[in-house]
Amino acid sequence: MSSAATSPAGPDDLWSVDEHLEDILSTVRPLEPIELNLLDAQGCVLVDDVTVPVSLPPFDNSSMDGYAVRVADVAGAGEEFPAVLEVVGDVAAGAAEPVRVGPGQAARIMTGAPLPPGAEAVVPVEWTDGGLGEGPVSGMRARSLAPEGAEGHVHVYRPAEARAHVRAKGSDVKAGDLALEAGTVLGPPQIALLAAIGRGTVRVRPRPRVVVLSTGSELVQPGEELAAGQIYDSNSFALTAAARDAGAIAYRVGAVADDAETLRSTIEDQLIRADLLVTTGGVSVGAYDVVKEALSYVGDADEPGSGVEFRKLAMQPGKPQGFGSVGPDHTPLLALPGNPVSSYVSFELFVRPAIRALMGVTDLHRPRARAALKTEQALRSPKGRRQFLRGTYADGEVTPVGGAGSHLIAALARADALIVVPEDVESVEPGSEVEVVLLG
Questions:
Q1: Of 352, 436, 350, nearest in space to 388 by CA
Q2: What is the pLDDT of residues 75-123, one digit of tens each?
């Protein structure tokens, strides 16, 4: 484990939030690039710039269903005196050898079909009689129902300028243009562009695999019956969902009982599918806080530098934290507190940036904003601790939700922001400007 941050002088001294985060980010490195098929690359970060090998569109094509014409042949056309043109055939999308349009001629053309030689513009079918001789029409009849529509004559009721309703070759991107920059996160539009320029695979940093374990003999799987003294395991679900929201491939492991050997064995079993391990619970000072018992070791002789260091942070909630690496590959592990709000706030502050760093993105953190505190009473905060209170943010104002208790899950579910109260502030008056972390 790296300790780039300046650690407190003694074991009982408090780390700051920034020191702990700096230590994590100085240790976590982006995952090695791999080549993936397009759909497998969704959500991944592009490693190299991608240039366009072929222009889009690759040829002049029609943006409308209608008729490809020469401009001179429809000049002055109107309702009373339409231009009457000979229909020389159909041009459908995918046509390899389109017909040629000569003087006094038109070709029926479909959206996306290449503009045929000789044609200069496209008139929408709604500007014509569709070859039926009965006035303007609203659309074309299907070729299978009326194959004769590709021949005969068509009446055109409006003139067209050169290049009207024609999508020019390269009007989207030209061959040699930069399609996507390195560092781009590949979403559906980016996947579409890669496919459109003919890329079947792409070199990316893979989405990190995050394994989430909760600890506690009192935890029960949702859907099962509760016995006396038991509660449902919510943390592992919250953190797994949060890891996925951050861009990771996340695996939830069922709650592990308060037994150090069982926990250590479970972690070792999970290393094969983990780029990052996250535990919740068992990091405080109680007799059954087994995460500290299981992971507070320097490491085997074959694994120098491994182990997890447990710390106290100058924050509320989330004072007890652990960070280090385990296993032969020195897989990063973040040990979070067990109280639900403490666990989730710790995830947002420390685990989410670590996941984003593994992905190789530059925007590691949630966006922040300044907001006016909307409350009837002043907020109190312990001196020397950076407090993170839940709130709802709208229109430049933030309203606290629930109290400061680290067990208040219902209040957390209603919150979309964290109100940040600095270490040197003990009271925040209504209307004061505060910093907020935007969660949604």
A1: 436
A2: 999 998 999 999 999 998 887 777 999 999 999 999 999 999 999 999 9
Q: What is the pLDDT of residue 255?
A: 84
CB 25 within 8 A of CB 364: yes
This prediction's pTM: 0.83
Residue 191 structure tokens: 């996947």
